[in-house]
Specification:
Number of strands of chain A: 16
Number of helices of chain A: 16
Number of helices of chain B: 15
Structural class of chain B: alpha/beta
CATH topology of one domain in chain B: Amidase signature (AS) enzymes
Radius of gyration of chain A: 31 Å
CATH superfamily of one domain in chain B: Amidase signature (AS) domain
Number of strands of chain B: 11
Strand order of the largest sheet of chain B: 1-3-2-4-6-5-10-11-9-7-8
Distance between the termini of chain A: 81 Å
Strand order of the largest sheet of chain A: 2-6-7-10-1-11-12-13-14
Largest interface: A-B, 29 and 45 residues
Number of domains of chain A: 3
Radius of gyration of chain B: 21 Å
Helix content of chain A: 40-55%
Oligomer: heterodimer
Largest sheet of chain A: 9 strands, mixed
Order of helices and strands of chain B: HHEHEHEHEHEEHEHEHHHHEHHEEH
Chain lengths: ~475, ~500
């Protein structure tokens, strides 16, 4: 019997608001332990939450970007459980009335377009962190993270492979970064992922028993954990046994999943509407206003790059991976008017150099207009492509505009036919033996003359022209 | 010289402004009196140094000619309201050493108004109780007769004002915790409309019902303290953005033609005959002042106590989850695993009544019971609210009722029977469920020499009518002038 994989992801996105979701304490990452706290974060007696409207707005933004319906009447609920990193003994979340419902995320896997449905996106507060100090055998609690706003994005169980799960997760990350609602940093925990996975016989409609893998904190781990879990469940089912529904942790060192301690699993959370928080009413006008301020999303950019800039889907995908990339690319095109050359330069030379230097696009030493100007210099044959590469290196190292570098180094390309012909004739005349061989049909000597001409011009001659003109002059001499 | 502790706030104002006595003298007189009346057990903490220091600062302001209604007036604060740097316990072992790093909004507002905090007032643990017997500090005694309870949960706040240990005080009212003790102690107490006063810094019992209010020895003083604490607070999302009128302007007005609703469901068997008689007298007085008595119906009254004892414990079980021994408050000693640490800390820290309500609340929120209890109770709450809306829309401007169905009872009398205790709040609970303003003013003395209260219930945001009616009633009667004779310790 063959089996089909059924995966659904629950993605937690930490929002990059200035303050926490229910108080004024800073929502910044890091800090000294318990630096970003106040009476509300600490759950002090008498402290009360007040909803941060910016967090709600971020939820609306992501909801619109994923084609969700936005709920007008939003209630927060209390989810109860005891844990030291949860100061109030309950987490403020949304229960049966999430702010966003019934949307979808579109993305490409290679050339194939995929759509994964979204069940819901809801708002909630993050918990703090328990730190177990093995040196002193003490358990410590850091509440900096407690109360940082989160969006939980729950997909439909429509993902069919680990690679697709990772691609979906990348698409979600890409979206939140375009919207600038989160930095999507998985290492710092701004993007966290739990995966539900089950297998069912191909053709079967009913879902098999699922397991949930918690806290997958990299794209690679998502894929590896799911691959391992598929193999594990497959072996169980093949042997005719039952998969046990349980919550698992992925051990990234061993590359295996193992059951979580049962006490960390879901109990009766006793949800009820938080009486401290009046419902947040999302008026139509608010949604409309947010819609009007939504940035262009990656899919729109990519479509335009393919249809109007003539780029391949692959290039469009690379350029739209980050909002900053595509914006940079557009500035380059605006400066040079050559979309394909701009794409080549940005995706290969430029990204390569950034990568090598370990720099982020925001730290680039090369301004987009300068890169555009460089492309223009090549296009109008002021410099050769080869020169351009060394000019680019210089630009990257010094941030100087290309024209300055070209001038400083005297790199101007020799493109005038008469000037080049004069050099060719001189070299022909100085090397009669080789010329005779060349005219006699030894084409290897063509390269010899190209080398001589380039050497004589200090490398500044337009190589294409040199090639063409050598042949032209040879033909002329033969027929003479 | 007259006993300055017996003066009204208005008289104290005059005395301070005319330099007849200083704020330091006034404060000392109250602190001394609190000391001598310690057997009443009103205070959980006396802020002797803090009070003297503020009094000195205020005296220098008074010397500069500054004046405002509450400048230099001593107050007592129920120990469920956070006071920065002053221990705040909610009368619970779990918070017995808790010193808040911040002031509740109401405390900040009183400080801004220039009051002097004399100390923290005893109460039922976490404001759960109607007799002030559930306190780690022991019961508060009724100044009218120390064998009797002062009512609860704001028993200390009421008894302290009745005994003249402070002229005004703050309490909280979730199901009657201001009005019932005001009634039992023969003073005036007002629970404003839900949302009128910030709950920020008020240790939560049942968030959708809790409201802070003031106690005073007369209606005018009550208006002054109410004025000082009302108004929108950005730190409490449930506080309303509604203008606060000048309550003193509502005083001394005519009530001719005012329609006074008498809920027929409140005159049921079990109502103490003396309470019934006192209420009828009070209605006659109001009629004599030109008000028109009309019968109204609040048909869902009989469900109110049941609804309350589902919703309030549900919210309490959640609100009290934070007392886990991790960050502050009592923590069980010994090397314990996490689960045991929670269980032991909470078992040791919470008293019996609090534990009872946490258990009830946890039960009604549990999967499988939530719809049958919590959701159903919310629906009935809506019906109770609608009862009042209908009465006010069609029949009356204010509702009068007894504050409690019975006279103050003896300490220990109802302790073993929680249901009897809960029924004490039968006339006050509906007002919290509907979020309305409610007031209790003295309206009689029983044959046994214990005070009785008249409850006035208003439309949402209409504290003014309560003040108008209360002040008219006060002007026509002398119950508010009756004082308990000082008890021997």
């Amino acid at each position: 019997m063959e089996f089909e994989t059924v995966i659904g992801l629950e993605v937690h996105v930490q929002l990059s608001t200035k303050s926490k979701i229910f108080c004024n304490a800073s929502a910044a990452y890091g800090g000294e332990p318990n630096e970003y706290i106040d009476p509300v974060t600490l759950g002090l007696p008498g402290a009360l939450p007040v909803t941060n409207r910016r967090a709600v707005e971020f939820a609306i933004m992501l909801g619109l970007a994923t084609h969700c319906e936005i709920r007008r009447f939003n209630r927060f609920a209390r989810k109860h459980y005891f844990y030291p990193d949860l100061p109030k003994g309950y987490q403020i979340s949304q229960f049966d009335e999430p702010i966003c419902e019934r949307g979808h995320v579109d993305f490409y896997m290679g050339e194939t377009k995929r759509t994964v449905g979204l069940k819901r996106i809801h708002m909630e507060e993050d918990a703090g962190k328990n730190i177990h100090d093995s040196r002193t055998a003490a358990s410590l609690v850091d509440l900096n993270r407690a109360g940082v706003p989160l969006l939980e994005i729950v997909s439909e169980p429509e993902i069919r492979s680990p690679a697709e799960a990772a691609a979906y997760l990348r698409a979600v990350r890409q979206l939140v970064r375009y919207l600038e609602v989160s930095d999507g940093n998985m290492e710092e925990g701004s993007l966290r992922c739990d995966a539900n996975i089950s297998l069912r016989p191909v053709g079967e409609l009913k879902f098999g028993t699922r397991t949930e893998i918690k806290n997958l904190n990299s794209f690679k781990f998502v894929e590896r954990a799911l691959e391992y879990e598929i193999a594990r469940q497959y072996a169980i089912l093949k042997a005719g046994n039952q998969v046990v529904q349980q919550t698992l942790l992925f051990d990234s060192e061993a590359g295996t999943t193992r059951p979580m301690r049962s006490k960390e699993e879901s109990a009766d959370y006793r949800y009820f509407p938080d009486p401290d928080l009046p419902p947040v009413i999302v008026e139509e006008s608010w949604v409309h206003d947010v819609k009007g301020r939504l940035p262009r999303l990656p899919a729109e950019w990519a479509n335009e790059l393919v249809s109007e800039h003539g780029l391949s889907l692959y290039d469009a995908t690379v350029l739209t991976a980050e909002r900053a990339f595509v914006e940079y690319y557009h500035q380059v095109v605006a400066a040079c008017g050559n979309s394909k050359a701009a794409c080549n330069w940005v995706t290969s030379e430029f990204f390569g150099a950034l990568n090598k230097a370990g720099l982020d696009l925001s730290q680039t030493p090369v301004k987009a207009v300068d890169l555009g100007e460089l492309i223009k210099l090549v296009d109008d044959e002021t410099i050769s492509g080869k020169m351009a590469k060394s000019v680019f290196e210089e630009m990257f190292a010094t941030s100087k505009p290309p024209s300055t570098i070209v001038q400083e180094k005297g790199l101007k390309q020799l493109s005038n036919d008469d000037d080049i012909l004069a050099v060719i004739r001189k070299e022909f005349d100085s090397n009669p033996g080789q010329l005779a061989g060349y005219l006699g049909g030894n084409d290897r000597l063509h390269g010899f003359f190209v080398g001589l001409v380039m050497k004589a011009t200090g490398g500044s001659a337009n190589p294409k022209k040199v090639n063409d003109l050598i042949r032209q002059e040879a033909t002329a001499r033969k027929s003479a | 010289m007259t006993d300055i502790t017996s003066l009204s706030v208005t008289e104290m104002r005059a005395g301070l402004d005319s330099k007849e006595f200083s704020c330091v003298e006034l404060t000392k007189a109250f602190l001394d009196k609190a000391d001598s009346a310690s057997s009443l057990n009103c205070f959980t903490e006396l802020c002797v140094e803090g009070a003297q220091q503020s009094a000195q600062e205020i005296d220098s302001l008074l010397k500069q000619g500054k004046s405002s209604p509450l400048l230099g007036i001593p107050v007592g604060i129920k120990d469920v309201i956070c006071t920065k740097g002053v221990r705040t316990t909610a009368a619970s072992a779990i918070l017995k050493n808790f010193i808040p790093p911040y002031d509740a909004t109401v405390v900040r507002r009183l400080k801004t108004a220039g009051t002097v905090t004399l100390g923290k007032l005893n109460m039922d643990e976490f404001a759960m109780g109607s007799s002030n017997e559930n306190s780690i500090f022991g019961p508060v005694k009724n100044p009218w007769n120390p064998a009797y309870v002062p009512g609860g949960s704001s028993g200390g706040s009421a008894a302290a004002v009745a005994a003249g240990l402070c002229p005004i005080s703050l309490g909280t009212d979730t199901g009657g915790s201001i009005r019932q003790p005001a009634s039992f102690c023969g003073i005036t107490g007002l629970k404003p409309t839900y949302g009128r006063v910030s709950r920020y810094g008020v240790i939560a019992y049942a968030s959708s019902l809790d409201q802070v209010g003031g106690f005073a020895r007369n209606v005018h003083d009550c208006a002054l303290i109410t004025q000082a604490i009302c108004g929108r607070d950005p730190n409490d999302a449930t506080s309303a953005n509604i203008d606060v009128p000048d309550f003193t302007k509502a005083l001394g007005k005519d009530i001719k033609g005012l329609r006074v609703g008498i809920p027929k469901e409140y005159f049921v068997s079990g109502l103490d005959p003396e309470v019934s008689a006192a209420l009828k007298n009070a209605i006659s007085v109001l009629e004599g002042l030109g008000a028109v008595a009309v019968e109204v119906s609040l048909p869902h009254t009989d469900a109110a106590v049941a609804v309350y004892y589902i919703l309030a414990p549900a919210e309490a079980s959640s609100n009290l989850a934070r007392y886990d021994g991790i960050r502050y408050g009592h923590r069980a000693s010994g090397q314990l695993d996490l689960k045991t640490l929670y269980a032991k800390s909470r078992s040791e820290g919470f008293g019996r009544e609090v534990q009872r309500r946490i258990l009830v609340g946890t039960y009604v929120l549990s999967a499988g019971y939530y719809d049958a209890f919590y959701i159903k109770a919310q629906k009935v709450r809506t019906l109770i609210k609608r009862d009042f809306e209908n009465a006010f829309a069609q029949h009356c401007d204010v509702i009068v009722a007894p504050t409690a169905p019975n006279l103050p009872f003896k300490i220990g009398e109802k302790l073993s029977d929680p249901l009897q205790m809960y029924l004490n709040d039968i006339f006050t609970i509906p007002v919290n469920l509907a979020g309305l303003p409610g007031m209790s003013v003295p309206c009689g003395i029983s044959a046994s020499g214990l005070p009785l209260g008249l409850q006035l219930i208003g439309k949402p945001w209409d504290e003014e009518t309560l003040f108008t009616v209360a002040s008219a009633y006060e002007g026509a009667t002398d119950w508010h002038t009756k004082r308990p004779t000082p008890q021997r310790a």
